[in-house]
Amino acid sequence: MQVTAIGTVAVTIVLLGSFLYVRAAFAHLGNDVFSQIEISTYMEPAATTAQENDTRAALARDPRILSVTFVPKREGLRQLKARMKGQVDTSLLTENPLPDKFRVRVRDAQLVPAVAKSIEKMPHVQNVEYGQQVVQRLLQLATLARRVGIAVIVLFVLVAGIIISNTIRLTVFARRREISIMQLVGATNMYIRMPFICEGLLAGLAGAALAVGVLAIARASLVPKIALALPWLQVNAVSVDLSSLVLQLLAVGALVGVVASWIAVGRYLRT
Questions:
Q1: What is the pLDDT of residue 104?
Q2: Which of 10, 129, 130, 240 is the S-S candidate for 211 at Cβ 3.0 to 4.6 Å?
Q3: What kind and span of H or E run contains 71?
Q4: Which secondary structure element, helix H or strand E, spans residue 40, and what is its range?
Q5: Which residues contact 215 (CB under 8 A, 6 or more apart)?
Q6: Contact of 16 with 153, CB cutoff 8 Å
Q7: pLDDT per residue over 210-262, tens digit each?
Q8: pLDDT (tens digit, 9 = 90+) per residue, 6-42?
């Protein structure tokens, strides 16, 4: 029975751990993308230096904003020429058509639309741009990924709990004679429960530890191959807190074992 329970927990934790690792890796890559989002704040052409300084000070006071970089129109034109690489002949320009602007980065990508609206209402600001459609789609995709992730995690835990609960029920049924004797001599339900709960706890921990070992071997062998096959994915640059992940998996294994045992024994005692 215990081998079945440990194996069930191990398989479930392997699936759960793989999912959590991939989710953390994509979250890391997603954060890198989100950290590149900038709100370009274009000032009115007639804005004076004092007015631009006031705007800079107002932006700096906003706690949602991480950094503010001023780009004068001369520097803006130079950067434009560098980006275009000679595709546009700027020698025909009689004057610089670009306005001064601020490059604004926010602390949380979810706040980009709200911060952009606030900036747009500031005096002497002509308009703001931050790739509205792309940012909205990225944020929607991130929200969807989070919800799907939570649903998958709950599903894995439920499946593991149900299988372990059934395994413990078989153990309880095999020991029904001992349980009956304990009830006859006045043992409380908690006293009867404790051995099975400890059994479930150990089974959960053993299964989770086995799964962590399998995942560590799989990571050591697969990640270099994936990095070699998909260099654009930058797998080696992905930073995942492995110690935290291992603790989470062990905690999930132990919790599932305890809860499943509690439910299985409780259902037997109520019959």
A1: 92
A2: 10
A3: strand 65-71
A4: strand 39-43
A5: 14, 17, 18, 21, 249
A6: yes
A7: 888 888 888 888 877 777 776 666 666 666 677 888 888 888 888 888 887 88
A8: 777 788 788 878 877 777 777 777 777 777 788 999 9
Q: What is the DSSP string of 96-147?
A: --PPPEEEEEESSGGGHHHHHHHHHTSTTEEEEES-HHHHHHHHHHHHHHHH
In angstroms, the CA 12 to CA 16 distance is 6
List the 39-43 sheet strands across, edge first.
65-71, 101-106, 39-43, 125-129
**One-letter amino acid of 218:** A
Q: How far apart are CA 148 and CA 152, in angstroms?
A: 6
Structure tokens at 170: 């078989």
Instruction: Considering only CA atoms, give the Rg of the chain.
Output: 29
Distance, CA of 219 to CA of 216 (rounded, Å): 5
Burial (CB count within 10 angstroms: exposed 0-12, middle 13-18, buried 19+), residue 111: middle
CA atoms within 13 A on the CB side of 207: 35
Token pair in block for residue 255: 């919790």
Supply the pLDDT for residue 57. Answer: 92
**Closest by alpha carbon to 109, among 136, 83, 84, 86?**
136
- Separation CA 128–CA 138 (nearest Å): 19
SS3 assignment, position 209? helix
Question: CA quadruple 74, 76, 80, 82: dihedral positive or negative?
Answer: positive
What percent of the chain has pLDDT above 90? 10
Q: Residue 36's Cα: distance from chain center in Å?
A: 18
